[in-house]
Design goal:
By secondary structure, the protein is an alpha/beta fold. About 40% of the residues lie in helices and about 20% in strands. It has 12 helices and 9 strands. Helix 6 packs parallel to helix 8 and helix 9 crosses helix 12 (about 275-285).
Length: about 290
């Protein structure tokens, strides 16, 4: 099958099937072989790997993955793409196309069935409107992953790897960095896609931790505190958490807890590190007993 990373080949297969892009699925197909090679280099897929691809589209990146991996499972929600995928991937015996909404699929069970529960690799050109639910779904359902290499909106990639005190730092930064070490490996201009998106894109690698970098008594409570702290960025952390469902401490007790973590009582959530949020969560946990 012709390399779909070449624009003419993509256009040809789309015309053959009379395919119409559906806005609700956020479809933007890669048409740049250099970017595809960069993604493959970053993902470091080998013949030992089982790879989950989310949103294969017409199979452009799937072809590259099939050349390198032991086995690929490609999950596609759009039924009109399934016959196209059956044609474009017909030359490969190591791929299964799954017509399903990835948010409803038991990916942990898939990893167990396909890879004996060993860590899998995830590679995807993600629809921008559901990037965060997909990535957090992988983490929170404890799908055994070694590396997640994804194309996302450039702004989202910046948020994922942002540090305390920066404008991009927020709840997403902390959530991702609790589960993985993020690093942007390439920025991708709009003309590398068909149709052209309205925003720039980035390829980001998330190397998942076997064990989170901080220990915390109640993971769920910590994330509720984080979300509440960033819910109103202009407020101090004390004012943002005072009276919230996740914090039973009085305002004075909360001030004391913040100061005990080496911060001023007027500090905002955006200055708090992951470790500080974990410690604050533990203080609240102990006070709730």
């Amino acid at each position: 099958m012709a390399n779909l990373g070449i624009p003419g080949n993509t256009i040809s297969i789309l015309q053959k099937y009379g395919f119409n892009f559906r806005k609700k699925f956020g479809q933007n197909f890669l048409i740049d072989t250099h970017v595809l090679e960069k993604i493959m280099d970053a993902a470091e897929v080998t013949k030992d790997d089982f790879v989950l691809e989310i949103g294969p589209g017409i199979g452009t990146m799937t072809q590259y993955l099939c050349e390198r991996a032991r086995e690929v499972a490609a999950v596609e929600i759009d039924g009109s793409l399934i016959p196209i995928l059956h044609e474009t991937l017909s030359g490969y015996g190591n791929v299964e196309v799954i017509h399903e909404d990835v948010l409803k699929l038991d990916l942990k069970q898939l990893a167990i069935e396909k890879n004996g529960g060993r860590p899998i690799k995830v590679v995807a050109n993600l629809p921008y409107y559901i990037t965060t639910p997909i990535i957090m779904g992988l983490f929170e359902s404890h799908v055994p992953t070694e590396r997640i290499t994804v194309m996302v909106q450039k702004e989202v990639a910046e948020r994922m790897q942002a540090g305390p005190g920066t404008k991009a730092y927020g709840a997403l930064s902390l959530a991702v960095q609790y589960y993985a070490k993020p690093r942007v490996v390439a920025n991708v201009p709009m003309n590398c896609f068909l149709p052209r998106p309205k925003v720039g894109s980035s390829v980001i690698c998330l190397d998942t931790y076997g064990k989170p970098p901080v220990s915390v008594e109640d993971e769920a409570l910590m994330f509720r505190l984080i979300r509440a702290s960033f819910g109103q960025r202009r407020k101090t952390l004390v004012n943002g958490l005072s009276g919230s469902d996740c914090c039973p401490l009085s305002k004075e007790e909360l001030k004391e807890a913040v100061v005990s973590l080496g911060e001023k009582e007027t500090a905002r959530g955006e200055t708090f590190t992951l470790e500080q949020f974990a410690k604050l969560s533990d203080v609240i946990c102990q006070a709730s007993r």
